[in-house]
Specification:
Strands 5-4-3-6-1-7-10-9 form an eight-stranded mixed sheet, with helices on both faces. Strands 2-8 form a two-stranded antiparallel ribbon. It has helices at residues 30-40, 50-60, 70-81, 109-118, 128-136; strands at 3-11, 15-18, 43-49, 83-87, 101-104, 122-126, 142-148, 155-157, 167-174, 180-186. It is globular and about 40 Å long. The chain has one domain (3-186): Dihydrofolate Reductase, subunit A. The protein is an alpha/beta fold and 187 residues long. The two termini are 18 Å apart. The chain has five helices and ten strands, in the order ββαβααββαβαββββ.
């Protein structure tokens, strides 16, 4: 049986993208990228929305070439090895870039629980819109938050409004440049 996790990079004021939809400020430096690479080692399944899947499709087609950075080559290898469930009412199977991906027009909490029960490792929900219902229902076991020292003043919130959860800090790191990583576990 797997666990359910939610990972995101967020501004200090709680946004994954600003009010213009810009999220370029979330781009990781080498040390943060390495932390994502380490985190991905335990992920067996990604549940994500269409836009996030299309963005991450970059890693499905990343060139396997000796002139590429070793960390990026390894991230692409790990990404390709993960099963993916794309939650989208508009995407068709023809739009998939991975043979390890499938489309689900909708994903109930019961369906999500089944995916977690069958998983051999962590199931990660990627994207705040896709994760919102699971967070509201208290199904997420781990929250992986990379906090960028930036206030953006509005935009797409990392966590849904109105949620109350008791969490405990399981890990915390501070990177050069002020980005912090905190992993919280559900109590």
């Amino acid at each position: 049986m797997g666990t359910l996790s939610y990972a995101t990079t967020v501004s200090i004021d709680g946004y994954v993208a600003d009010s213009d939809g810009d999220f370029q400020w979330t781009a990781p430096d080498d040390a943060v990228f390495d932390a994502h690479l380490d985190r991905m080692a335990g992920v067996s399944t990604e549940v994500l929305g269409r836009k996030t899947y299309e963005l991450m499709g970059y890693w499905d087609t990343y060139p396997d070439s000796a002139d590429r950075p070793a960390a990026e080559l390894e991230f692409a290898r790990r990404w390709r090895a993960i099963d993916k469930v794309v939650v989208s009412s508009t995407m068709t199977p023809e739009g998939l870039t991975s043979d390890r991906a499938r489309v689900a027009a909708e994903l109930s909490l019961v369906d999500l629980q089944r995916i977690v029960e069958r998983a051999q490792g962590a199931v990660e929900i990627f994207g705040p819109t896709t994760a919102a219902e699971a967070i509201r229902a208290g199904l997420v076991d781990d929250f992986h938050l990379f906090v960028v020292p930036k206030i953006v003043g509005g935009g797409l919130r990392a966590l849904p409004a109105g949620v109350r959860l008791d969490l405990t800090l399981a890990e915390h790191w501070v990177f050069d440049g002020g980005i912090t990583y905190s992993r919280y576990r559900r109590r």
